[in-house]
Design goal:
With 153 residues, the protein is an alpha+beta fold. The protein is 31% helix and 31% strand. The chain has one domain: Gcn5-related N-acetyltransferase (GNAT) (Aminopeptidase). It has a seven-stranded mixed sheet, with helices on both faces.
């Protein structure tokens, strides 16, 4: 059983293989999400250059990286927020999202796949709203993508 004690910290190069594994495992476990990149191609995206282009924060529990968030600070955009199965629904995702909000109190955006109802409920609960005119039906995966926006009120 994993405790609810977690910490957030900037990712290091040593964390990136675990971050890639979290994404790969998510793709493999999600029936509606086709694999468009091999596991190896996904792993190759998690390289030293990522840490220079993005702000990457990891969620650590009991000495294990159980999730991460990647952001484009220039655009105030969350690129990815993923949690491993044993680390979901315990406040870690909210902590990562709150770190992003604190970093960009003027507002944030993110995109998510339309069928990801669990993520949609989570983001809506955290104050994000869909930007209807920004829907993208032409993704590489063939799945509609929606833009979500959070603005301080």
């Amino acid at each position: 059983m994993i405790s609810l004690t977690y910490s957030l910290r900037p990712a290091t190069l040593d964390d990136l293989p675990r971050c890639a594994a979290i994404v790969n495992d998510y793709v493999d476990e999600t029936e509606w999400l086709p694999r468009v990149l091999s596991r190896e191609e996904t792993e190759a995206l998690f390289n030293a250059d990522l840490l220079t282009r993005r702000f990457v924060l990891v969620l650590e529990m009991d000495g294990q990286v159980g999730g991460y968030m990647s952001m484009d600070d220039a655009e105030a955009r969350i690129i990815g927020l993923y949690l491993a199965p044993g680390f979901r629904c315990n406040g870690g995702g909210k902590a990562l999202l709150n770190a992003a909000k604190a970093r960009h109190p003027e507002g944030l955006t993110l995109t998510m796949f339309e069928p990801n109802l669990h993520a949609r409920r989570f983001y809506e609960r955290e104050g994000f709203e869909e930007v209807l005119e920004a829907r993208n039906d032409n993704t590489e995966e063939g799945i509609a993508e929606v833009l979500m926006k959070w603005v301080t009120r």
